[in-house]
Design brief:
The chain is mostly helical and 113 residues long. The chain contains five helices and two strands.
Length: 113
Amino acid sequence: MEIEVNGKKVQLSEAGWLEDLSEWNEDIARKIAAEVEDIPELTDEHWDIINLTRKAFYDLNQVAEPRKFMKMMKQEYGKDRSSNKYIFSLFPKGGLIKSANKIAGLPRPKGCS
């Protein structure tokens, strides 16, 4: 699959995961959100999760597991924003693992389609 962002062609896997993680930027995130995940606009709340997933990935050197990520969300943003229900309200097609990580330009977690 291929998307075009700012005149540049960007390769995605068949499921919409970024092939070259070094190409990621916010414009690519917006395009993946809109065209792959059916999220027409990324709000500040979306960006909080996207940025925290990226921070977790680079701090831990792996995609954060949901339980560990929820603890990070609670520490960063409080209890009301640290549930799967909250994450799925923003990323309804696949929550943290399939949608937020994909939009954040992270590698596909093992066992994830």
